[in-house]
Structures are given as C-alpha cells and as structure tokens.
Amino acid sequence: MKSYGLFIDGQWVPASDKKEYKVFNPATGEQVGQVGDASEQDVKKGIDAAYQAFPAWSTTTAWERAGILKRVSELIMDHQDELSEIMTSEQGKPLAEAKGEVKNAANSVEWSGEEAKRIYGETIPASSRKKRIWVQRQPVGVAAAITPWNFPASMITRKVAPALAAGCTVVLKPAQQTPLTACRLMELFHEAGVPNGVINLVTGTDAAMIGDVLLADERVGKISFTGSTHVGKLLMRKAADTVKKISLELGGHAPFIIFPDADLDRASDQVLESKFRNAGQTCICTNRVYVHESVAESFTEKLAQKTKKLKMGNGMDEGVQVGPLINSEAADKVAEQVRDAVNKGARIAAGGSRRSEAEGKAHYFEPTVLTDTTDEMVIQQEETFGPVVPIQTFKTEEEAIQKANRSRYGLAAYFYTRDLSRAIQVAEKLEYGIVGVNDGVPSTVQAPFGGLKESGLGREGGKYGVEEYLETKFISFALDQ
Ligand code: NAP
Fold first, then answer.
1. How does strand 142-146 pair with strand 220-226?
2. Start and end of every Aldehyde dehydrogenase domain (predicted)?
C-alpha cells in the first residue's frame, strides 16, 4: 500500500489540516494507497515554492536543464516495471499498455530536455542604421498543470518536461483517481536533481477549489489542462481574469473512414488497436467508423471476429487486452449510449453487455461493435470513452468527409486507402489536429498533439510543446553613434 503526502518545495508534507483520501484499484475495488488531500493553503504553498524557485531555475543553462531531464528519463526507464504496476493498480489498463505509457513518458522527458538547447531567439534587420532589434524567448514563469486519469504518467510528462525545459517551474494537480503514479514520478524528478520548488504536487479531492486557487493567483503565468471539454471551458473563462497563457487538450470524437480500396485486414487491425486501447478511454480513440458500402459487410465481419477474441479482465493478469472502466459512472455512460443506439435501430455484431465484478466494485463493458448506426444516435454525436465501435456506411468520398467533419470536436481522424491522390486530399480536408493515413496510432513524442474546434488550444509534443511555455520578448537597441 502506497502512502504519500503533498510534494512541496522538495519535501513530502502532510496536508495542512492532515486530511488524506484513499485510492482504489478499479479492477478489484481494493484500496491501493492514500495521498494528501490539499487545502487552499496547501495550493498556495505550492505556488509560493514554485515562484521562489523560478529565478534560479530560469537562469540555469539549457545544457544543465537538458542534463537533469535526461537523468529523469533514465530513472523513469530504470523503474519502468514498478511504475507500470502502480499505474495498472490505480487506473486499470493492461500492464503491457502501462509499460508502453511509461516508455512514452521517458521519451517525452528526454526529447523535451534536448529541445531546451534549441530555444532560439532572432535578430531582425532594423529600419534605422542606429537601431538593432532582438527577439528573445523567455519562460512564462510558474506553470500550473492539471491532468486526467486516463494516462497517469504521460499526461504529466507532456506538460512538466517541456515546462522545465523552457525554464518554468510547476505546480501539478493530477487526477483524483490516479495520484500514485504522479507521486512516484515526483520522487524520480527529485532524485534526478530537479531542485527544490521547481516541481510541486498537490493532490486532492476538491478539484474546483484547487483550480480556482491556481487560476486566481497572478504569479501563475500559464495553465495547461488536459481533460473534458466542459471543464476546459470553465478554466478558460476563469483564466481570463488574470489573462494567463492557456493550453487545453480536451475531448475528441475521432472518425475512422474505410475507403473501398483499403486493405481490410490491416484497416480492421488498426481500428481494433485505436478503439480498444485503454478500454476505449483515450481522447484519440476511434469513436465512429464510416465504411464504404461496397466493403461494409466484409470489413464488419473481420472487425467483429477480432473484437470477440479480445481478452477482458484485470490488467494485471497475463494476456488481458481490455481492462475495466475507471468507475461505475463511466460504465453507465457507455451502457446508456449502447441502449440508445439499439433502441434507434442499431444491431450488435460483437459484445454489447456490461459486467460488474468484485461485489459491484469493478465495472467492465464488453468490447462492442454496432452496425446500422445513424447520426440521430447519441453515440454518433458524443465522445463515448468506452470500448464501443459504431459503424455507418457511405457512398461517396464527399459524404464520408462531410460526416467525419460534422462534429464540435476536432482532435484526431483516421482513414484507410491505397490511393495517393485521395490520401493527400482527404488528409487536407479533414478538420482535425491529427490525421492518421493508414495509421490508427499516430501519436509520438516529437510530433504536435492537439485539436481544433472544441478539442482544445495549443499543442503538446515536439518543439511545439516547448513553445507553449515561452514568451516572446522584443528588445530594441538605440545606438549612441
Ligand atoms: P475531467 O473531469 O475534465 O478531469 C480532468 C482533470 O481536471 C482532473 O484532474 C480533474 O480533477 C480536474 N478538474 C475537474 N473539475 C475541475 C474544475 N472545476 N477545476 C479545475 N480542475 C478540475 O476529465 P476526465 O474525465 O478526468 O478525463 C477524460 C476527458 O479528458 C475526456 O474528455 C478525454 O477526451 C479528455 N482527454 C483529452 C486528452 C487530449 O490530449 N486532448 C488526453 C486525455 C484525455 P479530479 O480528478 O479531482 O476530478
């Protein structure tokens, strides 16, 4: 059983009023740890520490920051098995997926650190012989990071690593359900040599209070949030009061188009991987499939057969590919979307049922394929965040693009074709921040990740991720002679 306080100014400290909360395993309902439950005063202490640490950290050389982040990355990989087990025990994803996420987190830390050395300024030709113009990049100051439960490690490293690389200090608030991975990561950042106060962790049950304190404080220059579109909008409104820089990675509703010339074996493999990873609980999971009517039957048959073979269960068990959903509300939402679709005429080609285990404390939903779905069904309009693929057919390329773009979200979209001209043109027409052409798993640390429309603002990953933590300063020199 893991037990942690809050990590402030390089020390583990209890919450000011000694409050703690328990963390449970979603596959068994058993308690796996407990962590500090921060008060308003604790969040302010976290900001104080980050603010005081900023002058020294922001003036370290890029080489020093890169060296420390490289060491963090190595330590994360040295503890890959331990971190993966902690993650699976609090989040539920299969252990193999957790290991992949830890590797991704380490890569993201290493890559961001290396990028610190490439934070370049500019000189611009002046319009007077007596002037010189410089453009300098500087860290924004204290950055606040709020992260969700579905990727307990990589959502943190995607924010913290570029922030540190840029020279910012950080106050992190991880999701209530998955604080243990965050706590262990804090220890590794500290062990690698990140100085006291540069990174601070406030866990807690009152997310709205923590968010309000971070947003109201003028010393916080930047807020980076990953989570639901609903909460993202709340934070954006509140950030306006102090005009903070803001990055939002919000919900998705990813379409996957199967054109008639697609390799159906590979396309169905990619839909399977894109949809059922983390039991469908990722923002870039395929959320609706559009398949050309000429290949619909064959594609559906292949996908349904593969879906039926997926092994569901406790993520700690050997061979499990689909774990539990995070809680009963998540399972209710999936069940309701399936019920609504079936009531409106959808047919179930695989799965379709909910299962509760461990005295109703663990909530599973069978990997499910629905056919004959229509735009009127809720599942075609909203993010599912569960293991269900709704399939619709289309007749023309134009119709497929129109259907794919008909959403308030614009995070990720995928399609399969062998036609090069079509590949280029469809990729350009899709209104999404990420497009996978014959690729259902495009995400990688060196590429920009983020969405259009109500899927968010800004990008994480690669040089774009570091940019989000930098200000641009124009310095004008007037010369004496
Ligand atoms: P959520 O309810 O919005 O929570 C995300 C984080 O915000 C958690 O730390 C949560 O704290 C906190 N929070 C909740 N209410 C808040 C408030 N009023 N003020 C400040 N913070 C608040 O989202 P979720 O259900 O955990 O995550 C799933 C969503 O995240 C999905 O919509 C998914 O698509 C999206 N997501 C997007 C990306 C991306 O990169 N675009 C990646 C992953 C997930 P508590 O845990 O304490 O409630």
1. parallel
2. 12-475
